[in-house]
């Protein structure tokens, strides 16, 4: 019996509008980048699988705010049903960095008594000459929040896979330690989908795991 993925993690993108959240997701799931992004057209979620260690395949369900970044316009279930969050700011816009703490506070308060695993993302690293946030201050903020910091560029495809890999591995490690468990009525982590589950009674069928962005 083939296993398509052992676990599904539901992950959200957080941060001000135009920091590059949708571009990051498109690069990660479809391998494409466009300088002309339409903020009003957004899919709800994207998907891609990752092998985070030999034999362990994780399906990431990645949720985008789709232009609803204003505080309190995002529904609580968006936060509550997620196990991981990318806190994204634009390296060329200091305000977006200043707002990271607010995003972190807003989400963390909404999901109490549970926790979320975060990673801090300094995005648009290709625009180094316009940089307004130093690596040192970003690393300091990440250290204060007890999370990792990675600088990415969707344009140059720099560190994009790595950011999702690191976050997924952190979540998986916490699962192995029993600090994150699947819970009834919670979509943050779901366990295994196999070919048997997909095609009961037809175990000879061979399925290639295929992932595409989803706009349903
Ligand atoms: N230079 C550069 N521009 C980017 C990058 N990622 C996104 N952008 C641009 O930033 C703008 C906003 O991106 P978008 O993904 O819509 O941001 P969102 O509102 O956070 O989803 C668009 O014009 C993108 O082309 C990047 O890595 N480098
Ligand atoms: Mg967007």
From TrEMBL:
Protein name listed in UniProt: Ras-related protein Rab-39B
Recorded GO CC terms: autolysosome membrane; cytoplasmic vesicle membrane; plasma membrane
Keywords recorded for this protein, A-Z: Autophagy, Cell membrane, Cytoplasmic vesicle, GTP-binding, Lipoprotein, Membrane, Methylation, Nucleotide-binding, Prenylation
GO biological process, one term: Rab protein signal transduction
Pfam families: Ras
N-terminal signal peptide: none
Subcellular location: Autolysosome membrane; Cell membrane; Cytoplasmic vesicle membrane
Family, as annotated: Belongs to the small GTPase superfamily. Rab family.
Superkingdom: Eukaryota
A molecular function (GO) term: GTPase activity
């Amino acid at each position: 019996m083939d296993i398509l993925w052992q676990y599904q993690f539901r992950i959200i993108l957080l941060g001000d509008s135009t920091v590059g959240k949708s571009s990051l997701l498109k690069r990660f799931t479809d391998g494409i980048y466009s300088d002309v992004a339409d903020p009003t057209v957004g899919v709800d979620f994207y998907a891609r699988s990752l092998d985070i260690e030999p034999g362990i395949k994780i399906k990431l369900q990645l949720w985008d705010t789709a232009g609803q970044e204003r505080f309190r316009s995002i529904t609580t279930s968006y936060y509550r049903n997620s196990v991981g969050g990318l806190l994204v700011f634009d390296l060329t816009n200091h305000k977006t960095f200043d707002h990271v703490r607010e995003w972190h506070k807003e989400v963390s308060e909404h999901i109490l008594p549970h926790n979320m695993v975060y990673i801090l993302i300094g995005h648009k690293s290709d625009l180094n000459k316009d940089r307004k946030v130093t690596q040192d201050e970003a690393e300091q903020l990440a250290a204060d929040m007890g999370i990792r910091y990675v600088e990415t560029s969707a344009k140059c495809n720099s560190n994009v896979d790595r950011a999702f890999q690191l976050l997924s591995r952190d979540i998986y490690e916490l699962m192995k330690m029993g600090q994150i468990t699947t819970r009834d009525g919670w979509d943050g982590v779901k366990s295994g989908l196999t070919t048997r589950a997909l095609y009961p009674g037809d175990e000879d069928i061979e399925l290639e795991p295929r992932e595409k962005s989803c706009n349903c």
